[in-house]
Design brief:
By secondary structure, this protein is mainly beta. The protein has no helices and 12 strands. It has a 4-stranded mixed sheet with strand order 8-1-11-12, with no helix packed on it. A 4-stranded antiparallel sheet has the order 7-2-9-10, with no helix packed on it. A two-stranded antiparallel sheet has the order 3-6.
């Protein structure tokens, strides 16, 4: 499948399970499927002078089941090695704790990972590159994202 000599790892410091799609080329957005729906509501006062409302959305983006794009499921507070070939483009989604087939939050779309670079998905849903030689949980600035 891929190059066993890859030195690209990902560490999940979010505290939630992740689904990470990856490909050696930029992923096309037509591979995405939007699931769920949106709700828009509001009210007008009797005088008609004020308007209050709400907009909520439970729209979820995932890749089509028949897509050729590979993915890994990464449990909370865990890490793994990619079987990629050189540079990668990754899309990172937070999985629904109650339904592993559904994603509830998008962290990145087509994040570019140069060859032999590893990264950390942080607790506040940022992506940080790992510092060379410092361990899987240490970012480029020296911050330790290791789960407590």
């Amino acid at each position: 499948m891929g190059n066993d000599n890859s030195n690209t790892h990902v560490a999940n410091a979010t505290g939630k399970p992740l689904r990470i799609y990856y490909h050696v080329e930029r992923m096309r957005l037509n591979e995405l499927v939007v699931e769920g729906g949106a709700e828009i509501g509001g009210s007008v006062s009797d005088s008609g002078a004020s308007l209050s409302g709400k907009i909520s959305s439970n729209v979820k983006s995932v890749f089509k089941p028949d897509s050729r794009i590979r993915y890994i499921r990464l449990p909370a507070n865990d890490y793994c090695k990619f079987s990629g070939e050189g540079e990668l483009f990754v899309c990172v989604f937070v999985e629904d704790n109650h339904n592993e087939k559904s994603c509830v939050d998008t962290i990145s779309i087509n994040f570019h990972v140069p060859s032999d670079r590893s990264f950390i998905v942080t607790a506040n849903h940022n992506i940080k590159f790992q510092k060379y030689g410092a361990g899987l949980w240490i970012d480029d600035l020296g911050y330790d994202h290791r789960p407590k």
